[in-house]
Each structure stands twice: as structure tokens, then as C-alpha cells.
């Protein structure tokens, strides 16, 4: 399209769009800059404009938000800048306001300086407490904790890299960035950098844009071009940013439903999950604070791990927290054994006696120097129990946590047995792993070992923690744990039997 | 907290709570005893009080329930005691009314004698027919049928017990009560007994409570401290006891979604399940009786197995029944083969010619003396067909049941082939099982055999019975059945090859 | 029931039914023939009558449909016959109107000539464009493409046929029609023919009906007794035919949720799927055309593959199409490798250099003569990108499709490695496959090879295409792909080791 006709089109479309974008709530309170964005984008990307129009951002100004009683506020800043106070928060505000902090990815766009990748520091303009909390989160470091840990990086390579079968065995190729971004890093977050610029012929004429590496991505631990870490949009989905959506378990399920971390699968068949699915037509997912029994009658993920909960008398059961492990003493996600939570969000410094960057020894012993103390564990459990006590008696709660202790103990034991079998394989040279200085994750018996803890140990513990019965039994649970162990032992025998004859005599 | 301040707190809280608990429907009809419970518990466990306030129990008195036409009644008692007739049914009624029948678990609590574990005989005060029906159910005996059957008990032990790997093989440890309660018995029900008392420092001051073994639990075949069996709350979830929820398939999914009994997974992808998920916004899940086509347009689990169904002219399609197999001729859950339903709910007396407590021989032949007759099977099928006929022609119905017959026949055959392979392994001493007097469930090839019937045979049959296509093909269906059989045959060869040389010469 | 009393019953019931069937919208506009159907069937099959009464068919006449602006029409015929124009479309219209075109399956029924199996040509009376589009669909040929392809037919046989274990190996039996209809053909469609007649004693007295082979079935590629192919009711579920339902992903999930084609599982955990599940209470699934951002805020299957999409200014983003691959360049469902879409819906003519009826060689090379050109691929991608652009920038879109290209490339490579291992097994005689002229799908290592592409390759590609992260990693994704490959290589060694001694020396 030629520049001239493009400009004409904009003028025509603008008139239509202006009418479309006006709504009762936002009328007259949309900034001029945002209105200019909308004028074109209601035609270029109409879906996100319409989506935003349904958002609270489009309907409430920061001043109105601040006027609410503290417990009902959705923003945590004490005071907003005067130029923001009385407008609704639109395109230009999030994508254009903090340009100075975005030296790499800001660019000129129709007379405005904007950036594509809105980052936690941008959100912190109005939501500083949430942003600070979030930064203390393991999830905020999900990129670094995976990719900068040499142990896990080997596993990433074996998962996403190609293997070529030859007569003399496999030739493993390193994983490429595109596959990593499409696989592990889709949840963990990619490393987004500006790598150049590109000029495109758009409906508005020729335009120049920065080129972003590993884009698109909304992974929770994303490395942003402004140097910050994390993506609020990972859970607060663009562009409606609905608290209703963030509180529904489907948001968490995006990354927490696989066999490695079956949280949502477990929740779905738990009593809590059944109540949520069966009865939530009458729930109010948007109320702040969130009143137990009145607004909702069974916890979702958010209720136990993040939301501000009160009872009908306004008593607080749980403080809002975006540090998702504030109420979690144990990290039941075994690496390879369940262990007390790490002290710091960045876990790359953790190293065990064997020199591996793991929070436990291969024998199961926790690497205590890097993990929270018993006192901190007790305090976190106390906080979680306060949530349980919204509906359950102390005896109920005690019984529940006794089971969790035992579940951690037994699943860790079953991981230890699998580790013994793998050690035998390594020692006998039937697989090439740690003793040989080889990748410990790329042969079949090694991968069976990984599934013992990553899939089955985790499944057993998540099932106990959240009451998803079958995931503790037949669906990757205790049954599968027992079966995989037996199969590993047989596999060891089969590997021995399939060695060349000379080898077999050893 | 000291006693004095606790009492003061109660007084203050009571005032607030009193206001909170009053609702239009329950105003003036809550018993004094229940009101006292609410006064404290709206602060101690506010979620369940609010939940109960939304329940029918909180809004309708037994007298009002009895005043309805018979077909619309939710209670089956002919007449209620005068002291119950005109109050709503709250905390004190269920937890305090039948203390004499609860000699073990009743205890003094703030001037009231109450018990924690409400049991079917308590519910029978108003719902005697439902309770009696339920007692005839396999599910009501789910604890005993599993734990008191020596064959199944071995499988429980192998699933939940630890295995220790040593150079000379595995050392198996018996399963502990905590793991069993957290695993199989979470659905089957635990053995709940009073084992002592405990004094706790509560928000209301020091209080003494009975200690309950294997608590918490809402498993369907729970052994209760009052000597009764079963838990109505397994499906009628506390404390809303919503018929809407019991009729939704998510309730059944709590225990019927695993690979062993994939009923809900199958339902979800069936045409019925699609209609339910897509169209149920306009359904009335609470109407009694439940009108086909008007209140709902596709059956849920409850429609086929439990609910009172009528057409718009009031003609009955199905009688309400809490004997869930009233309309089921076959037990498609193979043990190890699908077979006619057992005559009695308690199946522990069943013994086959081989002396095993199984409803079939290892050859597949049913142990007929303990199973329903052909006549009874025909009668049950007739009842189910009456439900199908609400929407389907007789030719459609006949075609459906022809497929079920064939599905039972073929999946049983595929189980028989797997059994032949396992028998070879036992006979050759490659695994230690029945001929050796050893646990037949704890080695890899044995566990592969179990999955042949428990996972794949069941999946094929459930898929046929309910129309969940892929569960009869690639998702644990015929494909997986065929593949597992091939793998078992190869496994036999691999076990032979991995025997010590001397052994191989045999 | 005797004829006399049956007739009396009809008279009584008719009176009741007449009242029941009258509704505000359909009053006076139901044809006399349909009213007669309803009079009995509101008693015989009340569910489907009530279901139909909720349908648009029962509430809008063709003349009213035609009076709408073109973009809002749900019928594509230019003009309807006068006798149809002003009545609502009921039982007699669909089941009785085109009797002449149903010489095989028409029969006399209470004075009317009707047929049970309503076929696409029947629907074409009002919906000709949709019917024509649909006929160009791979799905419309789903029966023939599976059963008439000798390669796939071998796989059907191995999946659904019985295998008998004997000392000398397996004896494979061919699959029977009943099992096929209950398994693969439940989705693909069965071959429905009239095979005779049957007389039944019904509530209306003795009646004669045609006997239909392989009935019931609503598979998408069904062979109908009128000689036509396909079943509209596969997605437009009887008898409400709700566009809301067809647009919800649960409809597609009926056949697209298994491990072979995990589209719905992937969608469910994608951002799109999360938005749909979390926010759809406020969506309008019934609007025609469907407005992005206003009616819905994330695409369902229908949005990307079938529906007419517009923005709020009425600009078209996508034309309605029942050729589901109109916007799909690649067939990511590998056979065994992902490849450009076939040119023709009927794929039985495709043959590769090796003489197999497959769209790729066993080396991965596409059989180009039968597949769409690069130009056609580009055009289809352009159409799909127009849908993406409803919400996403071009950079976002380009990044997405770069990943899809790489995902196709890498998953195809991992299939190739597995193929090399299988070739080794065949060459060494460790399995009997193509070189031996044997079924290449019926031994364990062959079935492991099939899962490499049919389950894991497909899962990786679907996960990339739709953003369902874990299905590209741990849930049958890259992890499983890598593990299965390692296991296949070990399996080859185990097979070698388990050969008789003489054989091992080779």
C-alpha cells in the first residue's frame, strides 16, 4: 500500500474507530495518546482493543482506585502521579510511559516513543508491592534457574536437542534457541533482546520496528530488554488483566498440568476442584478482598497461594502475596528429592557435596545451607494452616499434614531406590553418566530414573498436598512409582545380558 | 489465649456472627442449638458456615419438604419427629441428634454432646430409602471389599509399601496406615475409630476432642466410629449438600477418572459429555424429579445411574436409586475379567476354583454362584434401556449393546492372552507368583499383566459403554492393549535371556 | 401391547403432547407432518423432541432466515421452496423430505415415508455451500481414507483384531466389523447400509423398520445408505444443532483429544484455551458473523478453522469455511512425517516410491505430486495469519510460524531416527516387517516406532501450533520423543540378546 492511500485509510478508519472505542466508563477519560493508539489499532488488531475495553484498566482511574478502603484496593502505590490519576490506563500508559527505562527496546511509532515488552517495573508504577513480592519468587527466576544451572541445562539439551542414530550409538546435538523457546522456555521465559530493526510495509504504510530475539514469549521468568526479569502477563493475561481469570485454576494450568508438575490435574479431581467446577456459577471471583464462604466455597490455586482472604466479619485469613511460597514450607517438586524451600529465588548458587547444582545430595540429604530453616518452615506452615482453618478443624488439618510428611518420606525413599539402580548401571558401565563425566540424562535407564522423581514422586506428593487421589495411586502415583522401580531393576539385567559376551563375563 | 479473654471474644464475635447468619429463609427457624454452633463457628470455620447457609438444609424445613407432592420430595421419611419438623437442618441436628447411637465418638463440646463423623444412619433420619439403597451398593463396602480380600490386599501392599533395592533383589515392606489412607483408601474409605482424646488450646480456650484414627476421610465405604459403613458426604459434598453438584459429573470424577476406572475421562469426550459441557448453562440441575429434554438435554452419570427421571408428561423413565448397579448387568471393571455383577455388596466371600478371592477364574470363567443370574442381568439391562429410550430408538439401543457385548468379549480375550504369558513366566521361574506362593503383583511383568486388565481392558469397556471413542483406541484402549501384549511377550524373552547362563540352558 | 390399547394410548398421549410441543415461536408454524411425529415421539423419545424445541430449527423459518442481511444468514441457499419457506424445520422436513434420494433406506412409518439416516444432501436443501465445502474436506473422506488404504488397514487390523499367544508366537485374527465400528470408525464413520427389515412390537403396536448395518454412528466420514458421504451431525449435534455447541472446543474434543491427535488437550492449556475457559460466561457464541473481541476474546477451534470472523467495524477477518484446511498449509498429523496438505480429500490414490500408500517416503521426503504446492501453502498461511492479526502483531506472528517450521523439522528428524532403528530390526530379522512382506505394525518395536510419530511427533507439532506448552515437552512431547528413541535403541539390543544362541553369532 502506498503512503498516500494509507494515510487516507487511517483518517476514514479513525472516525469509525473513535465511535467504537467510546464506552460509558471510559468516555472522556482516555488519554489523547491512548486514543490515538486505539484509532488505528481498533482496525489493525481489533481483538486486543476490544479485550482491553472490557478490562478494569479501561474503566477505573488510579484516583478512583486509591479512593477505595485499603483492603479493597487493587493498586498498592500510595500516590500516583497527577498526570495518571484521572485517566484510565491504556495502551500509551503501559507501552509508552517509562521509555527512559527502556533504552534498548523503545522505538518511534507514529510520533510516539513506545516499547513492545511491558515489564514488571512498568507495572510497578501502580502495583509496586506485587512487583516486589513477585521478584522474590522462584518463578521470577525461572529462566536463570533452569538455563544457568549446568545440571538442568544438560537435561534441557537432551530434551530439545536432536539425537542422530548411528551404528556406533547416538550422536547428540545441542538444542537450538528456537526449540528451547518453544519448549521449556515457553513457561520459564525466554531471553528477549533487541537484535536489530526491520522495516515492514503495513496497512499504515512503511514502518520500522525493533527485532526481538526469542519472541513472542510470556514466560514467568522472562529476561526483558529493559534488563528486568519476569512477566506479569504470564498470569494476568493480556489485555483484560482480569482478576477473575488469575484466580481461576485454568491460568495456573497453562504451566502446571504436565506430568512433571501435575498441580492442576490433581486439583481437578480433588474435592476443592469439584466444588469449584460444580458450583462456581454463583461465585464472585472479582471481589477484593475475597470472602471465604460468601464469594467462593472452595479454594482455587490463588486462594491458598496468593489472594487476600477474609471471612464475612472482615477478619484476615491470609494476606495477599505474590511470593507464591510464602505459605509453603516444602518444595514438593523434587530435584531429585523433595526438600525445604530454597532461601533465595535465584537457586543457581546452590551446590551439593558432589559438586552438582542441586538442592539435595543424590542420597536425598538436603543441602541445608541454601534451604530455609525449620523455624521458617514452621512459620510458613502456620500461615497455610490459617487458610485451611477457614473451613477445617485442627484435627483435620493435622491429619492432612501428617500424610504430607509421610508422602514426602516415602516418595523420597522410592527415588533413592531408583538412584541405587542407576548407580549400579553407571558403575558397571552399562550407562555413561556422572562417573564417566557424561550427560547423566540422555540414556533410557537415566530417563527412567528421571521419571521416577520428576513424574511419579512429584505426582504422589502433589496428590497428597491437594487431595487428588488417583494421582497418588494409579495415575503416575504410587503404583507407577513401584512399577517403574521394578522395570528399572529388570532393565539393568537386560542391559547386562545385551552386553557383548566378553563384557558379560565381568 | 487465656480463658477470660477467649470468653470475651466469643461474646463480641457472637454479636457479629448473629447478624451474619440470619438470612431471609432461615430467619427464626434455626434451632437454638444450631444457632449456638454458628455463633462461634462463623468465626472459627467461617467457610463451612457460609457454605451451609447456601444449602437447601438451611432454607427448607422437613415439614415443608414433606408438604410437596411425593415425586418432588427430597426426603423419603414418611413423617418427621415434631421437634425437627419446623426447623432448618443445621450443625446441631446432624452432629448432635443421634448421640446415643454414637457411644464411641460423642463428646462434650461447649455444653453439647456432639460427634464429628456424621454417618449414614444419621442421614437416615430424613433419608431412609436412600440410606438403605446405598447399603446394598458395592461402594458402601469399598473398604471391606478391598482390605479384607487377601488377593487385593497384596496389591495394596505392593502399591503403597516401600521396596528396597539390594544386590540380591527387592525387599518389600508392608504398607503403612498413613500411606494407605492417602492412597487407595482416600476413595475406598478408611477405618475411623476413636483412639483417645486430646486437649487443645483453641481460640475459645482449652478444649478436649476425641482423636480419630485415619482422619480426615470421606471415602465412600468408610468404617465409621458408630459401627456403620459408608459416607454420604463422599458424593453429597459438605456443607452445601447440593443436588446440583451430585448430579454433575465432576463429583464422580473425584474417584472415577484414573486409568483403572476412566469413567469421567470417557464421559468427557462422549457426545453426552460434550452436550453437558457445552449446553449446561441452560440446564436445571436441581429439579426433582429431573425432566429429560426440559431440565437437561444429555445424561450425566447421575441420570443413567441414580436420578429419578421423568418426561414432560410426568411419565417415569427411571426410579431414583442409590444402588448404583440397579441398571447395570455387567461389572465392566474387570477382576481380572469383566463379569456379571456380584449378588451381594460384600464380595469378600467370593472364591474361585483356584482358591483366590476373585469373581472369575484366571481363565476368564465367571464364578457364577456369587454372581447375578441371566434373568437379573436382563432385568437390569431393561431398566437401563428405558433410560436410553428417552432419546434413542430401539435399533440404536440394540446396536449399542451389541457393541458392549463384543467389547467385553474381546477385551476379556486380550486379558486371557496376557495371563498365558504371565503363566509362562511363573512356570519358567522367571517371576515368582502364584505357583511359588509369592505375591503375584510385585514384579514388572506381573504389573504389566495387571495393567492389561485394570487399565486397558477397563478403558476399552468404559469407552464402549459410554461412547468415549479414543479411550477405546489410542488412549489406553485397543491399541495399548495390543501393544502391551506384544511387549509382555518380548519381556518374557528378555527375562529368559537375562537369566544366569546355567539357567538359560534349561 | 395389543394394537387396540396402543391406538387408545396414542390418542390420549397426543392430547398431552400437543400442549407440550406448542411454544411461542413455533406456534402455528410446525408442519402437519412434523406435528404428527411430535405427537407420538414426545412420548416415545421425549428427550429429542424437547431438545429440538430448543433449537433454532424450531424457532426460525427459512423465509425469516433469508430475510436477514447476507452476513448474518445461517443458510446459504438463495431461495427455498415455497412449501418450506414459512414453516419451522422439524422431524418430517429432515427425515422425510428427500425420500426419492433415499431409495435404500426410506420406509413407511405411520403413513409417512421417512429415512433414519439424514445425510449431507438432505442438509444441502438449505445449507448447500456448507455441504459443498465439507465434501472437499479430508474429514468427509475419513472412512475411505482409512479403510481403503491398505497400509492403514493393516494398522486397523492390528489394533482392533485379536492376537492369540501360543508357544510359537502370536496368531493374529482380522478385526471384526463390530469392533471397528466401536473403535476407529466411531470417529471416521461406518459403512451404513440397509441389510433387511425387522418387525418390532412397539408402544404403538407392531411396526416394521429397516435394519441398518454398523449402526448407530455419527462419524464424520460415514458412508450413508443414500450413497452420500459424511455426517453433519458429527459436529452439529442432534437435535439442537446449536452453533454455540459447534463453536465450543468440546465438540472437536470428541475426536481430537487422544494421544494421536491431541488438539484439544493442547488447546486446553494454551493461553487461548485458558481465556476461553475462564472468561466465556460473557461471550456470545451464537452471533453470526462472529465479532473478534466483542463476542469472544480468544479463538476456539471454530474461530481459526471454520467461522466467519469480523471486527467491530464489520471488516472480515476470515470467511466461513467447512473446508477445515483452508487456512492450513501443513498437515502436522504425520503419516509418518508432517507434510504439505494433500491436494484431494480422497487420499487413497497417494502412493510413494516404495509403493506404500503414504504421503511421504520412509525417509521423510514428501510425495509432492499429491500434495499442495508452495504457492498454495503460502496462500493458506496468509489466510491463517489474517486471523492471528486480529490480536497479534506481525512480529509476533512471524515468530510463531518460525517455531512451527522448526518444530516440524525437528520432530520429523526424530521420526527419521526411529525409522532407522526399526529398519535395523527388520534387516536383522529381529522383527518381521516390510522387507519380509509382513504387517509392519504388529510387533512391539514396530508399535514403539508408530508412537514416535503418531503420538510424540504429533504432540510436539500440535503443541507448537496452538501453544500448549507441556505437550511439547513432558506430556508426550520432546522429552518423550527423546526417551522413546533411546528405548527403541536399547530394545534393538535386547532383541538381539534374546535371539537363540546360533542366531546371536551372526
Automatic annotation (TrEMBL), chains A, B, C:
Annotated signal peptide: 1-19
Residue ranges of domain Cytochrome c-552/4 in the record: 123-202
Domain of life: Bacteria
Record keywords: Signal
UniProt KW Signal keyword: yes
Protein name: Seven times multi-haem cytochrome CxxCH
Organism: Desulfuromonas thiophila
Amino acid at each position: 500500500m502506498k503512503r498516500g492511500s494509507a494515510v487516507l485509510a487511517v483518517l476514514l478508519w479513525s472516525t469509525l474507530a473513535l465511535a467504537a472505542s467510546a464506552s460509558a466508563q471510559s468516555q472522556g477519560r482516555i488519554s489523547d495518546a491512548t486514543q490515538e493508539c486505539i484509532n488505528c489499532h481498533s482496525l489493525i488488531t481489533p481483538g486486543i482493543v476490544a479485550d482491553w475495553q472490557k478490562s478494569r484498566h479501561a474503566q477505573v482511574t488510579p484516583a478512583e482506585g486509591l479512593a477505595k478502603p485499603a483492603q479493597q484496593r487493587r493498586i498498592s502505590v500510595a500516590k500516583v502521579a497527577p498526570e495518571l490519576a484521572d485517566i484510565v490506563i491504556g495502551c500509551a500508559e503501559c507501552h509508552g510511559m517509562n521509555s527512559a527505562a527502556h533504552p534498548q527496546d523503545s522505538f518511534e511509532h507514529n510520533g510516539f516513543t513506545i516499547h513492545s515488552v511491558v515489564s514488571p517495573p512498568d507495572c510497578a508504577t501502580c502495583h509496586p508491592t506485587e512487583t516486589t513480592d513477585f521478584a522474590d519468587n522462584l518463578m521470577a527466576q525461572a529462566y536463570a534457574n533452569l538455563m544457568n544451572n549446568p545440571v538442568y541445562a544438560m537435561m534441557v539439551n537432551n530434551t530439545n536437542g536432536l539425537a542422530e542414530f548411528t551404528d556406533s550409538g547416538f550422536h547428540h546435538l545441542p538444542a537450538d534457541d528456537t526449540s528451547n523457546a518453544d519448549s521449556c522456555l515457553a513457561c520459564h521465559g525466554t531471553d528477549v533482546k533487541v537484535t536489530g530493526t526491520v522495516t515492514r510495509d503495513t496497512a499504515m504504510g512503511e514502518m520500522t520496528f525493533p527485532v526481538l530475539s526469542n519472541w513472542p514469549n510470556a514466560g514467568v521468568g522472562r529476561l526483558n530488554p529493559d534488563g528486568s526479569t519476569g512477566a506479569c502477563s504470564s498470569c494476568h493475561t493480556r489485555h483484560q488483566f482480569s482478576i477473575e481469570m488469575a484466580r481461576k485454576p485454568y491460568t495456573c494450568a497453562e504451566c502446571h498440568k504436565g506430568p512433571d508438575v501435575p498441580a492442576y490435574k490433581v486439583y481437578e479431581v480433588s474435592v476443592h476442584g469439584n466444588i469449584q467446577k460444580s458450583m462456581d456459577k454463583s461465585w464472585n471471583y472479582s471481589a477484593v478482598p475475597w470472602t471465604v464462604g460468601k464469594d467462593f466455597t472452595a479454594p482455587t490455586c490463588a486462594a491458598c497461594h496468593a489472594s487476600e482472604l477474609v471471612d464475612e466479619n472482615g477478619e484476615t485469613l491470609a494476606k495477599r502475596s505474590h511470593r507464591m511460597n510464602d505459605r509453603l514450607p516444602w518444595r514438593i517438586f523434587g530435584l531429585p528429592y523433595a526438600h525445604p524451600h530454597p532461601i533465595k529465588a535465584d537457586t543457581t548458587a546452590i551446590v551439593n557435596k558432589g559438586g552438582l547444582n542441586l538442592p539435595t545430595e543424590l542420597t536425598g540429604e538436603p543441602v541445608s545451607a541454601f534451604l530455609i530453616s525449620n523455624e521458617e518452615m514452621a512459620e510458613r506452615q502456620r500461615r497455610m494452616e490459617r487458610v485451611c482453618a477457614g473451613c477445617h478443624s485442627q484435627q483435620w488439618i493435622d491429619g492432612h499434614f501428617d500424610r504430607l510428611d509421610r508422602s514426602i518420606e516415602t516418595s523420597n525413599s522410592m527415588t533413592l531406590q531408583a538412584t541405587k539402580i542407576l548407580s549400579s548401571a553407571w558403575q558397571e558401565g552399562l550407562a555413561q553418566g556422572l562417573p564417566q563425566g557424561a550427560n547423566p540424562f540422555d540414556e533410557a535407564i537415566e530417563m527412567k530414573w528421571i521419571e521416577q522423581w520428576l513424574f511419579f514422586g512429584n505426582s504422589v506428593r502433589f496428590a497428597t498436598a491437594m487431595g487428588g487421589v488417583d494421582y497418588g495411586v494409579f495415575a503416575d502415583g504410587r503404583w507407577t512409582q513401584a512399577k517403574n522401580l521394578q522395570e528399572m531393576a529388570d532393565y539393568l539385567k537386560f542391559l547386562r545380558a545385551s552386553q557383548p559376551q566378553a563384557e558379560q563375563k565381568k
